[in-house]
Amino acid sequence: MMCLARVALLISVALALLPAAVRAQHPPRIPAARMSVAPVIDGNIGADEWKEATKVSGFVDPVTGKRAQDQTDAYIGYTDEAIYVAFYARDSHPKGIVGREITPGAEFNGEDTVTFRINPYGARTYDGRSQFSVNVLNTQQDSIAGGRAAKREWRGVWKSAVARQPDGYSLEMKIPWKVLNYPPGKRLNMDLDFVRFQARGQVTSRWASTSVYDRPELSGFWVGVDPPPVSQQQKTEFLGYVAPEAERGDATVRSGLNVRHHFTPLLTGLLSIEPDFRNIESQIAGIDFSHTEKYLDESRPFFNEGSDYFDLTGEFTVGRMFYSRRIETFDYGVKAFGNVTPDFSVGALATVDTGNETAAVFRAANNFGPKASASVFSTFDDRPGGTNSLWGLTGSVRHGSFTADTQLSASRQNGQAPNSAGAFSVGYDVPRYLAILRYEWVQPDFQAPLAYIPWTDRRGAYLFLDHFMEWRHGPLRNLDVNSFVSSFFTDEGEEQQRGVETFASATTRGDVAITVGKTMTSYSNALDNLWSVQTTLNASNRFRQYSASWETGTRGGTPSNFYNVGATYRLFKKLDVGLQQSILAYNGSDSQTIVSIGSELSPARSITGRMVAQNGDVNAYLAYRNGGLGGTELFFILGDPNAATTVARVSIKVVFAF
User: Fold this and answer.
1) Segment 103-112, tens digit of pLDDT
2) What is 27-225's CATH topology?
3) Across-strand partners of 141?
4) Which three-class secondary structure state does DSSP give residue 471?
């Protein structure tokens, strides 16, 4: 096998010969327009009520670099109370406009939507940028900077309305200033952009960031904004719950309290006492084979709120130095997160499970403009049998199409000599091409009980290459081909992982997604020789989607086959049913069946349930929710969402903000 250094050299030469990635962009600038009379938010853009706003047009399809075939006009203005935004989205085939989701916060996959982006700090970075999206059914989805919680009273309430038009649809938004974090002062310049997704052709068009990069420094400028004074008044909010429940004849009442305090408009504190983790559905680990521990997403609100401030080392490195699922439960926890200045952010967290575990996490990060950043971090964990402390730093810089970054960590277990782990990488990223070369190591005795580290006793490098293409005409919508070349050894020089994995994925104009993969990788001198294929029908429509995959070959000379089929379907316009069946045949046989149901009775009310059967064990639960729009929320749960087997349990949970 050609050594990684030689492969990297060949790739670097080839990429250097590519033409210029993208023409230089000059982000547009628009003046801030103060409105004397606020428009009525009804979805219809009245000429008189929007005459004082600034109008923008000329949305560009980044794939073609040309004006989008179906154009969009956007309007923006403000008062002392709120920012007002409107879109008029023209469509040459209005009957093809797609809207499906009605639950606030749902993912808009393959639906017609518009999005307003704003960074009040004008920092040209992802930090501080908020997004407000609405589909044609007026379902809202937002991502508000500052680590806002899912509970609507804490996150902030904004308003929108949609109206169908003969040649498309129109939409209006009202975003109160109090929803946003913004710096004090007058005549501010803010970053902003307007984005539209058209489902019929799967086309994204944007007003400002018109290259395929879609980087924050390509956003437009909103010039001369005079927002209302930033409130310096400290504000404390409370969110409590009460959960009476009965299980196997025993009745109990659990309760807890969350307290949220704004130290400054940019810095937030959160105290959680006796949180309810039992009634929160967690991700189920699949049975597909893996040489390492599988990473599972977090679903608990305490850890999700402000989670970006606790992302110590990111995803693609030796591991995540803070993996919140390591903290299974606690009696009380406290965290503070946010920005001290527009460029300098902090996150601090501590939890106590009385008599069992005390854990703490800290991170401080600084952006040096849109192309450079650095952070320092530490974790602490004390449990019976061991005390661990970890500290580290990260750094990243981008120049043109090149990026360099590093992550360094040191860990001390029970006062012993520290052990280290780290990585250095360089990347080259231009439209349609990506190359990353990374060297990393983890010393044999490196321990980090709060981290997710898939490999230890590891030293070596990998090369990742990706080529992505997208078309507006022809049988294919897109094609993505990538390869992962690895060469890792233990500290004593024994092979740990070495080989090549290649995958090719395509989506057809008929919305069929197909992925084919080949793996030729040796683990400890035992070869994995595998082929895989996966296909998904209606890839952009989760309400009528079917998928199947098959992986076959040998692992270390032993035959291995993995089968997976799945389907999601909406019945009677209200009932969503999902089925996933997996079978792994390798040194025996494992099977897993997951059946899910959900009925959206209204934007606020729903019924959900899940049944998981794995190797003879079956767990099922059913839940009713009335909430999501603010005010008191009510949950009724039969069973335990995360138990190994079905539990005869009834719980009523009431959540209230005050």
Assistant:
1) 888 899 999 9
2) Immunoglobulin-like (2.60.40)
3) 133
4) coil
